[in-house]
User: Fold these one by one.
Assistant:
Number 1:
Amino acid sequence: MALNDMLWLLTVPVFLIVLSRVGVLLPDTAVAVLVLGLALFMTAGIWLRLVLRRRIFLAGALRAESPWYRRLRGGPLMALVALGGAIPLAAILVVAMARVDAPHLLLGMVLNVPVLVLLREFWSRRLASHAVPRFRAMLALRLALALNLGLLFLALAVAALFRTYPELSGLTLAEAMLSEAGRQEATSGLLQALMQLAAAKDAMAWWLGQQVLPGVIDPGLQVAGWMVLVATDLLVVWSYLLICASVLTVLHWRAWHPGGHRE
Amino acid sequence: MNTQVQRRGIAGNAARALGVVLALALLTALVMDQRPWDRLLATDSGVGIVIQGQRFQLPAEESAVIEHRAARHADRGAAEAGDAAARLVAAELDDLFERLSGRLPAYADWYFSLRGEYTRLSLLILRWGGLATADPVVDKAVELILGGEELAGEVSAIEGRVEGLLAARASELRTAWLQELLLMAGEPRPASEPGTPSAVVLLDDLAKEFAGHGSSEFLTRLSASSAGAASAGAAGPLAARLALRSSAAAAGGGSLALKGAGRGAAKAGSAGAGALGCAAAGPAAWACALAVGGAAWLATDWALLSADEWRNRDALIADWEARLALLRAELEETLLEHYDEAIAAWHRGMRLEVERSFSPLDSVRGAPPRRSI
């Protein structure tokens, strides 16, 4: 099963690699459809995790025969909430892929596929003797995602330390942000505007890194400072992991769904 | 049975594991190596052309047509400019030398007049005495036929008109090339629109070269070479050129000189015969002899000049026609030589710029890189 999961999950980095190459060529409509499609796909994984959380709460708080158990178990409203959270995350991922200019992020995403699957298998086995069977698969996925998020972000943050960045030391913060924003080009005006916002954010981080961090002598503090500055990349990593989680969720929907009633 | 299922399961897992490893390796390679993407995306997006701040995108094969047509424009433009310059120079010189030829009868009138005769004689005497250096006949010819410094002005004016014509030709060439290029390139793409064309061709330098202001500096060269032609070839020492013309002209001049010597002997004889008649005048004989001799000299001179004019006027005019024709041919050759040199340099500049501008397409077409220019 783990190998099958890996093969299916590899479609995610394939899709993202293609997106990174052709994203800036897409027109407005394609970008909108892409963001909405990704958000809908993410919603599947988010919704199932929300349902799990709700079911765990309901299992501990309500009787199974209570009508509120049925009403609160999670339905279209919860899906809408999930969609509301997924849309900005999908947009962040699309923009990040369109702007990607170094291979470390995509490489991290490719190599992360077996890591995520192995982490999920690991937690599934570890929880076998602890978790309620109908919640075990999703709990294992949640734990694997959390741990994977930390590992992947750490790896990317360390890789970011060794990257070269534009020299912004002679510029004011505003000039640096405008300069970076002006270098963004995309067919879609919508995507270009989002890319400019992201570029301005990156320029701010780099500018602060170049102006403030050199004054910090302790290397540990410097690493910590850089990690804070690249913390916004956490959202990109999280979006990627949510899509991976959705792939696994859709693949194992029947097996992982906690069901309508307590066992 | 179970063993078979287990074997199939193991084989399937091994195949899947191999698939995962291969997929990971392939994806890592695709992430780390940009070249496959460049080739893939370049095929779709074609070639970019940038001119006058506008960006166009078109298939690679159309860019080859554009390059070919640019080269053809350069060849045709240079050839047409050369032909046009030659036609204009010929027409202008025809007009100029027709006017100069129209002055030959006046020169012949002066040449066969008493005033002309005695002016020549006095200037020759001065020249023999070292008081004058130039040939008085040639000086007078330059004054009467060529109008003194007027010819230099006329030649300068012709040069100015030819320069204007060539500048207009260069501008027309650039316009015609641009029109055809824009027609082929279609609608420009917005500057903000991204694209990853396999190659980008910048054509602003080529447009400048077509207009005559590129690296070959056609218009500057044209102006400089014309100035050189005016000073060195055309409006310079015309008198000397006219004096040292062809052998036919020299032969004509020699026969006229012989006739002049014969006239002198006849005049001396007639003056002496007239003076002899004054012997009976007594004390006034010397005055009478001077008056009669002078009158006889002048009458004889006029009669001989008239006879000489009757016999040699056409030969004199024909001689000067030949001199003017030679001058015209030399002037035309000098001017065209300079224009041809300038046009040839312009043509070389255009062809080199075509080759340089389109050299980024070599890699797209799979051609070996050209030599750097």
Number 2:
Amino acid sequence: MATVDVDLPHVKDDDPHHHGPAKGLGRWLFTTNHKDIGSMYLIFSLCMFMIGGIMALIIRAELFQPGLQLVEPNFFNQMTTMHGLIMVFGAVMPAFVGLANWMIPMQIGAPDMALPRMNNWSFWILPFAFLILLSSLFMPGGAPNFGWTFYAPLSTTYAPESVTFFIFGVHIMGASSIMGAINIIATILNMRAPGMTLMKMPMFTWTWLITAFLLIAVMPVLAGVVTMMLMDIHFGTSFFNAAGGGDPVLFQHVFWFFGHPEVYIMILPAFGIISEIIPTFARKRLFGYSSMVYAVASIALLSFVVWAHHMFTVGMPLVGEVFFMFATMLIAVPTGVKVFNWVATMFRGSMTFETPMLFALAFVVLFTIGGFSGLMLAIAPADFQYHDTYFVVAHFHYVLVPGAIFSIMAAAYYWLPKWTGHQLNETMGKLHFWLSFVGVNITFFPMHFVGLAGMPRRIPDYALQFADFNSMASVGAFIFGFSQLVFIYNIIQNVRVGEKATAQVWEGAHGLEWTVPSPAPYHTFSTPPKVD
Amino acid sequence: MTKAITLALSLLAMPAWADWQVNMNEGVTAISREVFDLHMLIFWICVAIGIAVFGVMFYSIFKFRKSKGAVAEHWHENTTVEVLWTVIPFVILIGMAVPATATLMDMYDTSEADVDIQITGYQWKWRYQYLDEDIDFFSNLSTPREEIMNAQAKNANYLLEVDNPLVIPANKKVRFLITANDVIHSWWVPHFAVKKDAIPGFINESWVKVEEPGVYRGQCTELCGKDHGFMPVVVEVKSEEDYAKWVADQKAMKLAMAGEASKQFSMDELLAKGEGVYQAACAGCHQLNGQGVPGAFPAITGSSIATGSIDGHIDIVVNGKAGTAMQAFKEQLSAVDIAAVVTYQRNALGNSVGDMVQPSAIQK
Amino acid sequence: MKDWLRAFASVFAAFLGVQSEENRERDFQQGRFSVFVVAGITLTLGFLLTVYVLVQVVMSFV
């Protein structure tokens, strides 16, 4: 990224046409302000993270010892399903959209998002989608219990009746994501300040631009697959029913054609965040910015041609098996190389270790571990031993929790002073970091071991040889879960009190967002800055 | 880098960590050992890359701190280095793909099998049909309910034990034809490195050739509903002579069963037998007390079927109800079992219709 | 013609995850967006075809 020199005459908002936020509830219901909507997305995501987290703790509590203690197997399946759906669609994705809402206009020098009313709408349908989904817990027959991947025919012929509500909820989430993505693309392509060429854009904006295209490409596929389910359930079609001439494996192909790009949707913005934070605290420009931009684009394209590596055991022909194994191994390389770039950025830098940097460093190490297990999973013959065991659970939690979620926490700590105008309480931030770091590893590392030793995933009870590592994982989960209360405390304290933050906030930070005062005024860049 | 790989490869010779239960089972077949070697190879490659990457990273973290007076340098790209660190992993992966593909081809070669067995997944049990012999049976979890509910101490094979294990001969190539009756299941025995999805309406193939007789245990590995965690796979590998003897025994048993079906039973006999059948085959959904689970599984107590016409009752047990979790039990239960369980349901669990049915009247 | 070759070279570099600042400045200043989209799609198809051919070659050893 080229150094951004800004000529900024209008930091103060002296245009009488502009005004502050409205008062009361109306401010939030009718707002078209990207900062308000960004905040609502982030708060919503935090609530969902807590709800999904409680479900995870119910799962871990049941698995603390062999035998059935707390919940029935059917309720256990509802918990694993809802935990996955809520974390993916309710916590991680809205958090990234919230960060995009807050930061993209400020990073490119735009006054707001391109389509502010649609922005309001795409947020406000989201709580209803999740109310519908969560309400299914109280329906006769219970909530969806077929796993977040909802493989047919378990999710069609054999599903509880609430599956229809689940389908409706997924449709609404999909609509919300598509609208958010359109808005982000329109904003980035049309509203950049003069001189903010594409090649000067910060990495976070870049990764989001590409993610938005991915979202537009695959969310309709998800909508399609749930609609096919709906037809099978209510209108007598047989897309996924072999007895009627359909094929249950077709479901998996369509689902993973959405699902694999979805994996990148959840990690590319994280790459962007980490690529902002590491240069700031290493006080050195990102190594290989150009490579990074190009590689992210190519990863996005290639993410469409590897989906069947999630399905090595469905009995594909040998040709298919070999094809997807090769393709997966090949595209693992450009993905992995991003890690080298971050390490090279640190090399011969001048590093300090504030809370956002700690989360970013943990991201690099733990995401890489998740990448390694991903590489192992790509080897099809070995995958027969890993598939649907706790090894897979360990793998995707390593890329999603210390991956995506740590990057979101890093982003929150990094930009919080800009949002609230208060300097971060480093002691509390570090406490949160270390508790989370230790908790995450105690939780998910032993899962590699039980998975390799033969424990299948999604089981409420297990054989005795898995007992010790499962107890350990449960202890870790509770440490990780409760340490998030420190995070919430930090945020609340930061909003309420704290030392006044400067506009610059972090010594090594670069970019337009650091040229506006902290807290960022309700309207920023009403007059576009000039970027040279 | 090359040094690291050589080191990694030499470490492969070290004994695996299987004893500490942190690693994959090496297994008991040629294929499973190949898979294990692939697993260890890719693992050590990852370890080597990890040491290199994290080494540089932690070196930077300790060396280039601002608090130690480090001043940031200004370079931010180096195409040669980038090309190098892209090409090296690329070459390593190609090296990895070769043995992986070879193993995969072996696994897919199901030709020239000595024994063919069809494996069918049901919610939540396995059915084994020996295609060359007239042997056909179901394999259910045999761990007592009391152990699962923590009322009794758990035995060493907790959740990994069944009433009728699959029996196969040692040193023969056994081909499995894997399918399912309701939802997708997945048949997995870690020691064979065989995991194949059982998909309703489609047949997948896999095979195994085990050298040593023994008992090998696995589980269903595709979420298949409520009792997904309670449908283990147990395979007993017998020497060829023992296997032949087992096949003969099975056939003799089948004849004896056929004789049983024409016998007349008293009400008490049927009730006593029916209680056991109910607990094994029905209670999973309809519950031990017959109350069912509202919204999911209907109650037997007071049900219009269990208290209505006996023919309708027999029909639903024998043929199931399409589109629901109620399976057709005609193949899973003998005529004696069906007669007993129908009689039991009508005269126990709070029902008292008073009629009974004889095994000879069950039309399958 | 030169534009096209450059675009293909850049997209190929992207697949490897390597690109120099110099080339990027050139691409972003002179290149046309549509050319890169076409190059991207073509090379993705090319990638698929390459892997497919590779697999067919491997299969011929069965």
